Amino acid sequence: MDMRPQPGEPGLFHVIDGDRPLDWERVYRDHVASIYRLLYLKVGNQHDAEDLTSQVFLEALPRLRSSASGGEIHTYLVMTARTTLAGHWRRRLGVQVTTIDESLVSAEGQAPPAADPLPRIRRILAKLPPNYRRVLELRFLERCSVGETATRMGISAGNARVVQYRALQRAAELGQEVGA
Amino acid sequence: MSRRIGRVSRWVDDLLHDRSPRRFGGAEEDAEVLAAAIELQSASPSAGLPDPQFIESLRQRIARETQGEVPMSTRVSRRTLLAGGGLAVATAAAGVVIGDRLASPSTAQKELLPIGASWTAVAHLSDLPEGTARTFDTGSVRGFVANRGGAIVALSGVCTHLGCVLQLNATARRLDCPCHNAAFGFDGTVLFKHMPDALPPLPKLESRVRDGQIEVLTV
After folding, report:
1. For A19, which DSSP code?
2. In this complex, is the C-beta atom of B108 within 8 Å of any C-beta atom belonging to chain A?
3. pLDDT at residue B155 tops 70
4. What is the Cβ-side half-sphere exposure of residue B26, based on CA atoms within 13 angstroms?
């Protein structure tokens, strides 16, 4: 579903506001770090997070009006981030790998929750069988290559890839059980 | 199955090298596996911290593409942007005032304002009981004023880490950064942080009380 305002369609903040221009530098400064972080946590790499953050601000800033409150601006940016992320996954893999929760979009005036992702990750890792936990710790926490991971686990590289795959499958299942 | 294992492994490799992962067909079978890898990636110490160079280059791109502006060398520098926009300038200007007063006692009673700086009323003293703080926004400067045992303190409202706007947590009597779970006290000192980077205290702004009004020096 494309939630983006279409050209010619009244946008969310097409509010009569005299001629006062939007202080876009301030809007940008206030929101860029939190929008970047929100997107990074959904794509997991700097390259895509920067690309999507750029898309969000380039698209949203011209549509914002100076009468919009901080909360409204935040809501609009998160909403734009949500559709931008959806388009990214549609083009990239044809499936919505991650989504931005609707509750963030409607959270009036609040920055995205700065929930520390680590406690949840630790809970998931703690529930994994030891070899699954080990492969994910080596790969994601110690940043080992597949080859290094295989050596440290005393298995072949091919086997390390299989264990990594199974471990990610199990982590995904546990993620649903563990909750937020 | 080995095809799925191989392509997920390549995808994870890209992710771990902070590259944009290559596209592949049939990903719907493994969408949850990819999502789990993305979540694990956020355990990395630098996860979610924007590169200051990226922040500045996107700012210039926005100016060019949406505002029709040509970036000028006089515009806010990256360092100033991260330190909190005009706030760093304001505190530097305040330093000039103090320096001048020390250097020439004969002018101590006068108000030496750096060019372009002015006192702006930001709150009524009566609205700021002891132990409380309020946000203010003069247009060029956004910050907090706090009453610490009768002494008024004015602080920058922008986190010294990456420039996120701080939120007043009146209950806990602190200023929270929503981006990386850090907080400052009403005196500007760091109460806690959850990032490896050093976190300087919040810059103080020059402030005074005139006719029951709290004023802050801004440029």
Report:
1. B
2. no
3. yes
4. 6
